[in-house]
Design goal:
The protein has about 350 residues and is α/β, with parallel strands linked by helices. The chain folds into two domains: about 200 residues, Rossmann fold; about 100 residues, DNA polymerase, domain 1 (Orthogonal Bundle), CATH 1.10.150.170. Helices cover about 40% and strands about 15% of the residues. It is built from 13 helices and seven strands. The protein has a seven-stranded mixed β-sheet with strand order 3-2-1-4-5-7-6, with helices on both faces. α2 links the parallel β1 and β2. α11 packs parallel to α12. The chain starts with about 20 loop residues before the first helix and ends in a 14-residue tail after the last strand. The N terminus and C terminus are likely disordered. InterPro entries: RsmH, SAM-dep_MeTrfase_MraW_recog, SAM-dependent_MTases_sf. This is Ribosomal RNA small subunit methyltransferase H. Belongs to the methyltransferase superfamily. RsmH family. Keywords: Cytoplasm, Methyltransferase, rRNA processing, S-adenosyl-L-methionine, Transferase. Specifically methylates the N4 position of cytidine in position 1402 (C1402) of 16S rRNA.
């Protein structure tokens, strides 16, 4: 992989954003000259810029956040001015519709696809987006700024639905207790801000010994529900596998167990492994392995280094999985299998 000598102006829209597992992403993605790469979550542009700086390739980047699209379009203009044309192409929408977005943009099959499933630090750090309990902001959490907000759900959903959201999406052990407290609080007055909700949750959930804020899991569950994140991931993974060129690589970075479980199962299915049985079920050994068009680039999830976790605590929960579509018979298997 030969790095390009690109103009110094070609940098991510925000130098404050720190991409997670960037070295590992580039290692498994291995972008090369002339290739087409799809960045499914443009966000702050760190992955896209790193890919563009690594090889003379073209990057198509998806985001459903209008602010991210605006940042990307500004970068396209910078690239066009610096190089005479833009090697970055922005696609406005969610990666759960990537096949449709790629078709509308007349994009080719991709030689590499990267999916960063984490919430953008831009969204977390902007109080007005309502994602974080660290700041007092409107209880929103919508990535696309449309549809039901977090406040809509918190103030109107039945107690049982709230409990399910906190339990299944947030993996909160005290989900029913939190749901009861929310319903009791909103009976007095609607909850409109992140700090209002956080205080309600902290009042009934004991502090974790690890020091993690008591509101963390419930906020995660609510954010996932607002944005249908798990549904988006399932649809995105299914479509990504169909959009790969022969020899194309799919690299996925997840940030919590619910995401990683979906990624692992999608990769196992793509590899022809029967995931309908538990590995402890004796029937599992009898399930015939179907021929697969894919090969794993890593036998298990890759974790960030201790050095990265110390430098960027947000990387601690990250897991990377990678898979490759088998090259055509005439192509070499060398690329991508060196890992």
């Amino acid at each position: 992989m030969n790095a390009l000598s690109l103009p110094s102006a070609i940098t991510p829209p925000s130098s404050g954003h720190v991409p997670v597992m960037l070295d590992e992403v580039l290692h498994y993605l291995t972008p090369a000259k002339g290739e087409a790469i799809l960045d499914c979550t443009f966000g702050g542009g760190s992955y896209s810029c790193a890919i563009l700086n690594t090889a003379d390739c073209n990057v198509w980047a998806i985001d459903r956040d209008p602010d991210a699209i605006a940042r990307g379009q500004a970068l396209c203009a910078t690239l066009e001015k610096a190089e005479g044309h833009s090697r970055l192409h922005m696609l406005a929408g969610s990666f759960g519709h990537m096949a449709e977005l790629a078709e509308q943009a007349h994009a080719p099959l991709f030689d590499g696809i990267v999916m960063d499933l984490g919430v953008s630090s831009f969204q977390i750090d902007e109080a007005e987006r309502g994602f974080s309990f660290r700041f007092d902001g409107p209880l929103d959490m919508r990535m696309a700024k449309q549809g039901r907000s977090a406040a809509d759900i918190i103030n109107t959903a039945p107690e049982a639905e709230l409990a399910d959201i906190f339990h299944f999406y947030g993996e909160e052990r005290h989900a029913r207790r939190v749901a009861r407290a929310v319903v009791a609080a909103r009976t007095e007055a609607p909850l409109h801000t992140t700090l209002q909700l956080a205080e309600v949750i902290r009042g009934v959930v004991p502090q974790d010994r690890s020091g993690i804020d008591s509101a963390t899991r419930s906020f995660q569950g609510l954010r996932i529900a607002v944005n249908d994140e798990l549904g988006e991931i399932e649809r995105g993974l299914e479509q990504a596998l169909t959009l790969l060129n022969a020899g194309g690589r799919l690299v996925v970075v997840s940030f919590h167990s619910l995401e990683d479980r979906l990624v692992k199962r999608a990769i196992q299915r793509a590899l022809g492994k029967d995931v309908s049985f538990s590995r402890h079920d004796p029937r599992a050994s009898l399930a015939p392995a179907a021929p697969s068009a894919f090969v794993a680039l890593a036998s298990k999830a890759i974790r960030p280094t201790d050095t990265e976790c110390r430098a960027n605590p947000r990387a601690r929960s990250a897991r990377l999985r990678a898979i490759m579509k088998r090259p055509s018979p005439s192509a070499s298997l060398t690329k991508g299998l060196s890992a």
